[in-house]
Amino acid sequence: MANIKSSMKSIRRSAKENSRNRSAKSRMRTFVKNVVQSAAAGDLPQAEAALRMATSVLAVTARKGVIHPNTAARHTRRLHARVRALAVQSAAHAS
Predict the structure, then answer these.
(1) Looking at the domain assignment, is residue 13 inside a domain?
(2) What is the CATH number of the domain that holds 48?
(3) What residues make up the domain containing 74?
(4) Chain centre distance of CA 12
(5) Who is most buried in 42, 48, 55, 70, counting CB within 10 A?
């Protein structure tokens, strides 16, 4: 355990930041999972709605510095590709 006052404060602050970041990452993963599950089920309207929410959450998570902006962009791009593939597949079955 630290003896110096500034070190004790630093420990408290890092624990608080760690908790906040963990919560934000967990929330992000939940929204990403919702898109993946909707796409796997073949529910296009649900997947598109979940994609809008996940894109927003990914952007906020990156802006707050929890994840790197390129990581957020990569996740967003892959989710868009997944939903786009579902849309193409749905269109092919409709015609």
Answers:
(1) no
(2) 1.20.58.110
(3) 25-94
(4) 27
(5) 55
